[in-house]
Design a protein that fits this description.
With 461 residues, this protein is mainly alpha-helical. The chain is built from 17 helices and 9 strands. It folds into 2 domains: 2-364, no CATH class; 368-461, no CATH class. The two termini are 53 Å apart.
Amino acid sequence: MKNLKIGTVLLFLIGVISFTSCEKEEFIEDPIVEIDTSKLVNFKGLPVDHRFETPTEDLEAEHNLSYLKVMLNKMRQKVAVKKGITHKSNSGDFPSSDEILEAAKEIMHLFPYQDILEQDEYETSGLGSIQIADLEQQYQLEQDLLAKGKWEMIKQDFPTLTEQEIYDNIEAIDQYYEQNLDYAVFNEIANNEKEIADRVALNKPNNSKVNSTDSCFTNLFENLILFGIYPLNIVKAGIAIAIVGNQPQRYAGDYYPGGDGDDGSNTRGDAYRHTIWNALLANNYFTLIAKWKRILFAKQATDLYESCTGGELDSKTMDYHNNAIGRKIWDDNTSHRKILGIPVALRRPSTARLKELIEKAVNEKSCFIVKFNLDVFPNNELTLDKTIQQVKALIDQTNNNTIVYFEGTIAPSRYGWHYVFSHWEYYDCSNQQQRSTKPNKPCRRPIYTRQWGEIIRCYKL
């Protein structure tokens, strides 16, 4: 698989080198290619070379849950007729997120979206910062090459549009592809239901949820489509939820004792789990170049989860706070890949990079809200336990970039150089900025000294 991927990248590289070489030779004019527009169909005013099997009525319809159920039922009926078996109307459940993912793996190469399987190679645990930086560089190089190929795919599908016109209409173009993605995925399911079910069952031990009693987590996709995810896409939501799966629980378990399972509520592990979950959901909801839909999807999914689960108000406030930080970390570390100044794809971080960023945010930039009076530091500085409302208020007052937690142990201190206040230095500032009168108070500036010592993590009493 690795050799195949490298080979694919090399082919892309050869194409890019050829493209770049021709681009530099300004005296060579591009050949004029006549386009047979008679074979193009119209989608939202855009001529498109419609190479997919999606019928026009399915291409133009709104793909809500009711419509998708009817469309899938028609496909199942058609397959039953081919096989000479009886098909009962409305028989068969709506596919699970795992089934949607398995079907999508078979047809995703036809679409200009990101690689579904890329996480397998880039989520390796136990890497140092230098290794992660090297891995990230390799990852971004491969994604640059793949993005150019995906952009060429879009140009071929919309042959009458310039690159600028493609960018100007990218939302409609993205909708064109997701309408076809819906049809292709459900057609794959209708024709290969048993094979897909077998693959899901085979992968179940690897994708099983850590806490199977958490029905709000295991039923997230079903609840999400039941309550509606407009203006987002149901199939894309299923793919993202299935790809992410239980990765947040596994990573939290790797980094933090007690961060995984029933004893992990309100701890650093819990904070990490919620933060990485939102970042991964945004990273795996497919769009061409839009960031806002990915962020909206992560918010809708995790907000629904929080509304489904129980828990005290301070716990909920902590989760919502950390969820938002996870989406912001993803947003801050995602930019656009450009060709000649035109955005053509997202430059998304690898899973390994997201894990590193969020681990550092939890261990180095978080704040421990001291709720309980205990014999350990800093809980022993608290005289009385705080109420739920008091903890909520402290979380609400915390910077939106600072991860919070209030149970378990405080993040370990570290030793390093830091600046300590020494004294005030007074000086004559009467002539500064051509002052006509001397200030009533003497001018002063703080003087700090650089010292080596213990740096205690943030905590609030």
